[in-house]
Design a protein that fits this description.
The complex is a heterodimer of chains A (about 110) and B (about 110).
Chain A lengths: L4 E3 L2 E4 L5 E6 L6 E7 L6 E7 L14 E5 L5 E5 L8 E8 L8 E2 L3 E5 L1
Chain B lengths: L8 E5 L4 E6 L7 E8 L6 E6 L4 E2 L4 E4 L5 E6 L8 E9 L13 E6 L1
Parallel strand pairs in B: 1-9
Antiparallel strand pairs in B: 2-7, 3-4, 3-8, 5-6, 6-7, 8-9
The chains are: A mainly beta (about 110), B mainly beta (about 110).
Chain lengths: ~110, ~110
């Protein structure tokens, strides 16, 4: 597609449920990032994928969070046993691997945990 | 990555130039300066980036001081649609798996 696509755009879930958020990056972009943005806050880095290299998971806040990227393209962010503090907008971005390339962000997935 | 400091908020009259400052006094020689903005309820949008020289594109101009310790993003003729949070970021150019780190940014409000 023309841009980074994220789904669902909105997700409301009950505390304790698992959720999956999907990101479809721009074709040809080998770098993929997940960020989280809580209400009124800046962006919080979660995880970074670059080609076939091991992902940088240093931003994942707990072991309830995991992400995978299949075939170097689509990525899924999974949150297990959701908590109310997980409520946020989850943003995905992709870029070419070149060092000075800009990131292209999706519109985000708004997660609300009741 | 070097840390950046930005004012939390600024106002600008519609049609006037908006000058958004950023301090990055600990920037290293191989770090680029990037600017992104985030309009309410949207994902961040790339604006411009530079290393040493001033840069200009269709959206904005980027002025980097000679010592590279600070920069200014200039929106030459601000419109109401430019109201957004503007993020100044510095990023290593080493090619290693480094994430961009977004701070709190500057909330620019363009007033009619």
């Amino acid at each position: 597609g023309a841009g980074v696509s994220q789904s669902p755009s909105n997700k409301v879930t009950e505390k304790g449920k698992d959720v999956e958020l999907r990101c479809d990056p721009i074709s040809g972009h080998t770098a993929l990032y997940w960020y989280r943005q809580s209400l009124g806050q800046g962006l919080e880095f979660l995880i970074y994928f670059q080609g076939n290299s091991a992902p940088d998971k240093s931003g994942l806040p707990s072991d309830r969070f995991s992400a995978e990227r299949t075939g170097g393209s689509v990525s899924t962010l999974t949150i297990q046993r959701t908590q109310q503090e997980d409520s946020a907008v989850y943003l995905c971005a992709s870029s070419y691997p070149s060092t000075s390339r800009e990131l292209f962000f999706g519109e985000g997935s708004r997660l609300t945990v009741l | 990555d070097a840390k950046t400091t930005q004012p939390p908020s600024m106002d600008c009259a519609e049609g006037r130039a908006a000058n958004l400052p950023c301090n990055h006094s600990t920037i290293s020689g191989n770090e680029y300066v990037y600017w992104y903005r985030q309009i309410h309820s949207q994902g961040p949008q790339y604006i411009i980036h530079g290393l040493k020289n001033n840069e200009t594109n269709e959206m904005a101009s980027l002025i980097i001081t000679e010592d590279r310790k600070s920069s200014t993003l200039i929106l030459p003729h601000a419109t109401l649609r430019d109201t957004a949070v503007y993020y100044c970021i510095v990023r290593l150019s080493s090619g290693s798996a480094r994430q961009l780190t977004f701070g709190s940014g500057t909330q620019l409000t363009v007033l009619p």
